[in-house]
């Protein structure tokens, strides 16, 4: 029977991908961020998950402003990374798990969500960077990918509460899956940052630390702000915290924080990594 072993929450800024490509992990500017992945590597080596369910946001690769689904779930046998112009050449393919994807899709529809289903799908740096961080140097990724894209770009955006409920529906679907896979959940993006306009470079460490301190023990605290509040607090791209909120919902109630790392800045972004263990480790 399937089991959710834990969750990994991390920034996905493309500058991290460029640092990996250039071998800058020990550079003084980057080292504090990369050092935060030592406990993640230990956790993955011990748990050996079979599947990664990744909540992320697409950056115009599959969807653009003229066609922007609120939620989209991949159901492809394989996903390829396609660089959007950042010069990040990660060429390893990401094997999919279509059967589990369709099970999740069916279950979230039964929970009255209406995701776009994608039997063909590319992934961008929001998936590629976290995977390279978690499994550096591997010849092939040891997990199968189920990507779940959340609109954080084109308003109106889904509310934090709606994303949390989506995550809970996905968690129930995983736990009802009849396979024997061990699943790790990802939430990627953020933390506070803004790339354009008069507030370009905006970072709000107070809001970031509020999210980090409440993510494990009290995720509903993150639901008190609506999406426009989050844009004001965290910046127009800081709203990627919606991906974290959804992933936290998938983990359910009882979790244990194994590690947390916060580093400012990475490029113009507040970068963080959090590792949560599903302390219940519920079997379906």
UniProtKB/TrEMBL annotation:
MF GO annotations: ferrous iron binding; oxidoreductase activity, acting on single donors with incorporation of molecular oxygen, incorporation of two atoms of oxygen
Domain annotation Extradiol ring-cleavage dioxygenase class III enzyme subunit B: ranges: 7-269
Keywords, in A-Z order: Dioxygenase, Oxidoreductase
One Pfam family from the record: LigB
SUPFAM superfamilies noted in UniProt: LigB-like
The protein, known as: Protocatechuate 3,4-dioxygenase
Organism of provenance: Alteraurantiacibacter aquimixticola
The organism's taxonomic lineage, starting at the top: Bacteria, Pseudomonadati, Pseudomonadota, Alphaproteobacteria, Sphingomonadales
């Amino acid at each position: 029977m399937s089991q959710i072993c834990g969750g990994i929450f991390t920034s996905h800024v493309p500058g991290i991908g460029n640092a990996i490509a250039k071998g800058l992990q020990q550079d003084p500017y980057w080292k504090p961020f990369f050092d935060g992945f030592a406990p993640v590597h230990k956790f993955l080596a011990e748990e050996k998950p079979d599947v990664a369910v990744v909540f992320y946001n697409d950056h115009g690769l599959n969807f653009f402003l003229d066609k922007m689904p609120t939620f989209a779930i991949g159901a492809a046998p394989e996903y390829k990374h396609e660089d959007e112009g950042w010069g990040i050449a990660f060429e390893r393919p990401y094997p999919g798990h279509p059967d589990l994807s369709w099970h999740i899709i069916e279950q979230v529809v039964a929970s009255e969500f209406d995701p776009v289903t994608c039997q063909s799908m590319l992934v961008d740096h929001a998936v590629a960077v976290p995977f390279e961080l978690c499994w550096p140097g591997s010849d092939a990724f040891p997990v199968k990918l189920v990507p779940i894209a959340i609109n954080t770009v084109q308003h109106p955006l889904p509310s934090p509460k709606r994303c949390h409920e989506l995550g809970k529906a996905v968690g129930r679907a995983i736990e009802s899956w009849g396979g024997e896979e061990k699943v790790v959940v990802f939430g990627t993006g953020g933390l506070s940052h803004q790339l354009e306009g008069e507030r370009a470079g905006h970072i709000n460490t107070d809001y970031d630390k509020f999210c980090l301190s409440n993510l494990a023990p009290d995720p509903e605290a993150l639901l008190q702000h609506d999406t426009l509040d989050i844009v004001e607090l965290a910046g127009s791209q800081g709203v990627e915290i919606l991906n974290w909120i959804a992933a936290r919902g998938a983990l359910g109630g009882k979790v244990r924080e194994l590690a947390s790392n916060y580093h400012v800045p990475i490029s113009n972004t507040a970068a963080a990594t959090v590792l949560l263990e599903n302390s219940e480790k519920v079997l379906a």
